Amino acid sequence: METVFTPLKYGVGIDMGKDKFHACLSAIDACGQIKIRATHHFANSPKGRTEFDRWCAHHQKDKDLPVHYLMEATGVYYEHLALALHQKGAYVCVVLPQKAKYYVKALGIKTKTDGVDAQALAMMVCQQRLEAWRPISQAMYELRQLTRQQADLQVFKTKVSNHLMSLEQGMYQAKAVKKQMTKLLAEIDQQIAECEKLIAKAIADNTEWKRKAEQIGVIKGVGLLTIAHLITETNEFALFENQRQLVSYAGYDVVENQSGKRVGKTRISKRGNSRIRHSLHMAALMVVRYEQRPFVGLYERVIERTKIKMKGYVAVQRKLLTLIYALWKKDEKYDGDFANERQKKVAPTEGATLHRPQVNVLESANISELVES
Predict the structure, then answer these.
(1) What CA–CA distance (Å, rounded) separates 203 from 210?
(2) Quick one: which of 363, 14, 58 has its CA closest to 199?
(3) 23-78: per-residue pLDDT in tens?
(4) Side-chain half-sphere of 181: how many Cα atoms within 13 Å?
(5) Contact call for residues 200 and 371 (beta carbons, < 8 A)
(6) Could you tell me which of 251, 246, 243 has the C-alpha nearest to residue 271?
(7) Which of 135, 7, 129, 134 is closest to 68 using CA atoms?
(8) Number of Cβ within a 10 Å radius of residue 126
């Protein structure tokens, strides 16, 4: 005798795209059996989202059952739908594409289409208890746009500078091209300065951000830009319950390569937010240059063991990240004297050669100076 399927929860998987999205509504019972109720695709527009709401309501026969929505963090295409559902009080989940990809692999699904992805997401949200998505605040969202714009402009400036250098080293020079590139560099510098001033003003206008940034900025070499990049890329570390999750998200988690007698290279995964690692690169150079404890001691120990400078700087980056996370979460000021006392317990390496890069003016300035400049 066939058992009656009695659903306990509805799950809606949504595969987002720029112009349209595919949706699959499924249900799961007490035995873990999942049945697909309906599938459809909609335009990624206000009209399409309205049609999606009506479609979901039509196929949810039991209005008392909970409904969980799941979508991937695909660029920014998911944001309007996720925000609209959240504002209506719906239980919305957003996962990284990599996590959904591993789930699909575990199911043994080989076909790759938008409809199949939506079905897999519907199964995933039915079977698993996922954390509810919380939208980033408007102020933080706008600050993140500024920090990313500043970082992108820096990358573009480096590219143009390299092209200009190549032009100047060539046998012949097109004066018109050189003039254009020089003018372009001046415009980029102006936009970078404007972005940095707006970043400083945004933090200065927020009492909590300003206080915490100043408490962390006591670490000589960690400037306002580094702090701004970290809090915008992590939404003030709201998504992390411990340092291990944060380290993994930033791609600093260690990956070992060993099997039997073979021992391969041990490295960081780099599977994470590259913007965090990029923002911490210069900060790590600065704290070592200024011989800040305990970072310089960590750097020297890694150099002594591996003879590779970059590994020392990566270790410092990771320690900086976890320290800033702790200070921000606890709302505490960095205590350099306490760090020095701990560092004295570790014998310093004599004769270690430290790389001393040029000081970034913005990284050494305080918030008030930047806003008033």
Answers:
(1) 5
(2) 363
(3) 999 999 888 899 999 999 999 999 999 999 999 999 998 888 999 999 998 788 99
(4) 19
(5) yes
(6) 251
(7) 129
(8) 24
Q: What are the start-end ranges of the E strands in 226-340? A: 254-255, 258-259, 262-263, 267-268
> Could you tell me which of 1, 133, 3 has the C-alpha nearest to residue 69?
133
Measure the CA dihedral 49/51/55/58, to 10°. 120
Joined tokens for residue 113: 């289409």
- Least confident piece of the model among 45-59, 181-195, 219-233, 324-338: 324-338
Q: Which residues contact 246 (CB under 8 A, 6 or more apart)?
A: 234, 237, 240, 321, 322, 325
In angstroms, the CA 247 to CA 222 distance is 18
- Write down the residue that tokens 């709201």 correspond to: 238
Closest CA to 118 of 177, 238, 38, 50: 38
Give the residue from 116, 41, 50 showing the smallest Cα distance to 80: 50
Closest by CA to 230, choosing from 340, 327, 106, is 327
Residues sharing a CB contact under 8 Å with residue 218, sequence separation 6 or more, in sequence order: 333, 334, 336
The type of residue at 150 is Q
- Taking the model in full, what pTM does it have? 0.79
Contact status, residue 285 vs residue 313, Cβ threshold 8 Å: yes
Cβ(296)–Cβ(352) under 8 Å? no
Measured in residues, the chain has a length of: 373
Q: Judge whether 320 and 277 are in contact, CB under 8 Å.
A: no
* Residues 97/75, Cβ–Cβ less than 8 Å: no
Tell me the two tokens of residue 290.
Answer: 């200024």
Question: What residue ranges define each of the domains in the chain, with the CATH number in brackets?
Answer: 7-127 (3.30.420.40), 207-372 (no CATH)
